[in-house]
Amino acid sequence: MGKVENIIKSIITEMAKEGSADEAEKDTGIPKKKIEVGKVTFSKDGDTKYTVTDIDSETGRISWSVEQLPSFEELFSVAP
User: Fold this and answer.
1) Helices then strands (H, E): number in the chain?
2) Which pLDDT does position 76 carry in this prediction?
3) 37 by DSSP, 3-state: which?
4) Distance from C-alpha of 16 to C-alpha of 4, rounded to nearest angstrom
5) How do residues 35-54 score in pLDDT, each as one tens digit?
6) How confident is the model at residue 49, as a pLDDT?
7) Is 38 helix (H, G, I), strand (E, B) or coil?
8) What share of the chain is helix, strand, coil (3-state, %, to 5)?
9) C-alpha 58: how far from chain center
10) What's the order of all strands across the beta sheet hosting 62-68?
11) Average pLDDT of the residues in 9-15
12) How far apart are CA 67 and CA 18, in angstroms?
């Protein structure tokens, strides 16, 4: 792997979240009626990616991943 790939891997962080449809809508920006597994959205500034990973059919609980993406400023300010 090259230096750029290593830098990107070290900058990107990921976490998992779960909650009600209301919580998922508030965090991901996806309207409750349009939430489905695999749906991807990005924050307004483009530095966060949300992906719906699971919907519990019995409880309605929704799980999603949150990835903090590198900004161009961070990517190019890292010393080699």
Assistant:
1) 3, 4
2) 67
3) coil
4) 25
5) 999 999 998 888 889 999 99
6) 92
7) coil
8) 30, 30, 35
9) 24
10) 13-19, 62-68, 48-55, 40-42
11) 61
12) 14
Structure token digits, residue 60: 């309605």
Contacts of 18 (CB under 8 A, 6+ apart): 54, 61, 62, 63, 64
Please give the structure tokens belonging to residue 58: 């019995």
Residue 38: phi and psi, rounded to 5, are: 95, -10
* Structural tokens at position 15: 């976490």
DSSP 58: T
**Token output for 27:** 């965090």
Asked if 15 and 65 touch (Cβ cutoff 8 Å), the reply is: yes
Tokens representing residue 29 in the block: 């920006």
Q: What is the pLDDT of residue 45?
A: 82
